[in-house]
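B., you asked whether I could sanity-check this one before it goes into the benchmark set. Here's the sequence:
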Amino acid sequence: MVKRFIFFAALLLIIIGSAISAGAFGLSWQKNIKAPILPAESVRLAREESAIIDVVKKTSESVVTVGINKTNTRNVIEIDPFNPFGSFGTPRTENQNIEADIGSGFIISKDGLVVTNKHVVSDTSATYRVITSADKTYNVEKIYRDPTNDLAILKINPPAGGLTPIELGDSDQIQVGQMAIAIGTALGEFRSTVTVGVISGIGRGITAGGPFEGYAERLDNVIQTDAAINPGNSGGPLLNSSGQVIGVNTAVVQGSENIGFAIPINIVRSAIENFNSTGQFSRAVLGVRYRMIGKDLALMNNVPSGAYLVEVIDNSSASKAGLEAGDIITKFDGQLLNGEQDDLAKLINQKKIGDTVEVEYYRDNKTHTTKATFTESN
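And here's what the prediction gave me:
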């Protein structure tokens, strides 16, 4: 009886197994269990995060903090708290030592050249120091300030074996929408802060400065990004996804969110090449201070569009060419000026010392032509 039961049970199992193998009742044996497929968005995010991490690892050693050391002197008059209506005490002098992190920078050569913003190191009465990501401090031995851009090169004495320079990219190749990574000392307190965004615009014009410096300067043809650039980030690198510097972080619009600006690295590259060959910043300058007149303003005043000369520097290229305050430059080196804010600045920045250009200008209801030869400004 028991043997018969076992026989029928085994037979039943064989029949059921055969039925499942044949796909009966919608059932089948699962031979290959496949891993779940991740959504494409998750894969993309993972790759993007990996790229950011790789950039930070690649460049952090080359990004530095710039600190200031300064002594302020002030006069203090003491008052006797027990006799507030008595005579004032004898004035005395009190020294106040200031030591703070005020900006960022990045290393461009093994022998100790560091790029930062000119407004970060604008105080000529102060001394400065550079602090690496490894928390090593170096005194700044020399400062070379660019006369026409918000740029400065700091010279420090490198350790044995030298420093690790960062790789410079090509800012002429950047496109709106591409990834942008900023690294610096946010708020002058948080070193090696990393923020990520995109290139929001190119060819912008801004007035740059910083709350630490009380300094402002007009900058043209800069990069706009929504990567957070806070006070203290000035002078730090703006990087692409390959870890190459495409800009020098220089300003943020106060009272706004996610609007920061950087000087294109190709401007820096040109300055560095000039510096390496001459040992100083030498720039071709026209020697004018001007304000652009757009079409609407030109129509209202019955004058042509162009660059209205507010001031002409004595003995400058413009002065020697016969230009005067009140003239309106309407054409420069064959290019019409239509009143856009950065028109003239872009054309001047393309010129070298010794270049001669034809300048068409408006004066006393007449159009005149002259030639200007660019001279050097140190």
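One thing to flag: The CA atoms of residues 150 and 171 lie 17 Å apart. Otherwise nothing jumped out at me.
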